[in-house]
Amino acid sequence: MFASVIINNRAAEGVRAGYPWISENDVVGRTPTLPGIVGLIDKRRKKVGNAFCSPGSKYFLRAFSLGEENIGEAFWRNKIVKSFQRRAALAKVTNAYRVVYSESDGLSSIIIDKYNDIWALQITSSGAETVKGQLVKIIVEEFDPAAII
Question: What predicted TM-score, i.e. pTM, was given to this entire model?
Answer without folding.
Answer: 0.92
